[in-house]
Amino acid sequence: MCDLFLPDCPIDNGTKGVSDGLVEQLRPVHPQSLRGTAGCETWSVDFSPGGSLFAWSMGYGVVKVLAWPLPNSEEGGDDVRDAQLTDKTSDRTLNCGHTVWGLAFGPRPRKRPGATSHASYELTEDVQMLFLATGLNNGIIKIWRVSTGEALFDLKGHQSVVRELVFTPNGTLTLVSGSRDKTLRIWDLTSTGRTCRVLSGHRGWVICCRVSPDSSMIASVCSSDNRVCLWSLRSYTFIRHLAFTKQSAISSCDFSPDGAVLAVGSYGLHNSAGWRVDLWDPYTAELLVTLEDCCSCEPFMNSKTIKTLCFSPDGLFLALVVDHRALRLWELGQNTFMMETDLTTFHNELCCTFHPQEGIIATGTRDGHAKFWRVKPMIPSLSHLCRAVLRFSVSTHQMKAFPIPQKLLEFLTYRDTPKRQKTYCRAHCR
């Protein structure tokens, strides 16, 4: 069903601002009559919690689960060959029967930010305890056993496309789903009958939802609302809105690994300003930082939207997928991107995710490809690690009650950076 090939471009040498970080690609083998037609898109990709597996929605209702590192990739050290010839005991092809919009591995164990130990997961051990959830075009969520590729059961309740799926990062089989029926549902996969809680209140399609690292909060956005909704995962109730201007369309959100920051991606409507990323304090609803698009690219702003974003596992970087500029990697506090893809080439990325341990970002494209990009390795500072560990357990309200110096408090609550930051793309870097 897929080919594995290395691109004709150099590997990233780690220099800041380099755009040639593409390591490899997975290309689906669709019949000629189907290539480029509706249904071939890769709407979702995901790595398993231990990083030993990669799941890829390759279009037309097919999901491929592959062992990571990929066969014959740079990590594998062998010559490139057709991925159809790889070990069938570890690779799975899941035929879902309908277009797959969201997918997620679970359960996801609780992981404290700043942990220096990278557990080595054996593939067979990892697979035995893993499930894969796939959200389909008809509103059904299929649950698969990864070790066998067996479809275990269906979750029914959504009345339209299941756009987003995420397992809570606390080691349980609790699944959160977001749908075009304007609702979120919280499923307990261990309960008899697999009942769910329904969260309603959005005025349009739910296109993104994320769970905080301590599994206490859900953030969700929809296609026709200029607000972010925050929900309690403990009481299943609405908490508050984070409001934006009516000229903005919100497209994505993600919690930092310590849960102290919520990043929200949006873009201007009706020829207004380009994309922007707002960093919020989810505890106080205070806007911390606004990252704006390159001001020198204004002639093209009306065609630039932000598709999705996600934090790196260490919280140092934020990956952005932007129309016509594909993938950009931003280091918090900087006004230039540490990595961006080739600006002279048209890109059509739709989704992205970080490998949990290696410096790799995976993206999915509109034509069904999965691409892998190398990220420049960086060692987190001791101050960053201490803040991440502390904020994972302490809310902003609790932090403000500590008798500590003001500058230290500002650092621990992410209030020590400029409120507004304009970025510069590689073409206009100053």
Automatic annotation (TrEMBL):
GO terms for biological process: intracellular signal transduction; protein polyubiquitination. Residues 379-418 form the SOCS box domain. WD repeats lie at residues 155-191, 199-241. The gene is wsb2. InterPro entries: SOCS_box, SOCS_box-like_dom_sf, WD40/YVTN_repeat-like_dom_sf, WD40_PAC1, WD40_repeat_CS, WD40_repeat_dom_sf, WD40_rpt, WSB_SOCS-box_domain. It comes from the Eukaryota. The keyword ATP-binding does not apply. Pathway: Protein modification; protein ubiquitination. Keywords: Repeat, Ubl conjugation pathway, WD repeat. This is WD repeat and SOCS box-containing protein 2 isoform X1. SUPFAM superfamilies: SOCS box-like, WD40 repeat-like. SMART domains: SOCS (SM00253), SOCS_box (SM00969), WD40 (SM00320). Signal peptide: none annotated.
